[in-house]
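Supplementary Text 2. Reproducibility record for the structural model of the 157-residue chain.

All settings were left at their defaults, and a single model was retained for analysis rather than an ensemble. We include the record here because the model underlies the residue-level annotations in Supplementary Table 4.
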Amino acid sequence: MKALLRMASIVLVVAVPLTPWAIGLHFVLIPSGSQEAVGRGQEVERLEQALKRREEARHQAVQELLSQRCTLKEALLRFQALNREWPDIIVMARVAGAEWSDEEIAYQLILKYVEMALTGQAEESAAALRRVENDYQQLHGGRLTLPTAAHSRTPRP
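Retained model, structure tokens:
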């Protein structure tokens, strides 16, 4: 059950551009009424633009990570900052039952974006994921063994 909640939280966090969610959210964010109909459309447009900009920034951060123009720590900090922008993905992940820290959520997102960036390149993807996992372990003194939703490997001893 816990694994299902984790996967659901990653799907919720990674599902970009989240258009169906955005369309439903504007009904909650903006009170109903005929004179606010234009405002609703503008709010949905603003939300879509924010999500698209965040997705592009994540792709760029992962490209820089893969080309070693930034470290994993820098990428984690960028993802964490992006997650806190409106609409706050950390809040959505918590509502979905995620028990990970903000950094762990960012780490899981980085793994997903690495996979997306290297789709169809199995060897490169596997090597990049191993490098990211090793870097993450080193950031925490080798004492963390987070489950990786990106693949079903068992944690290394």
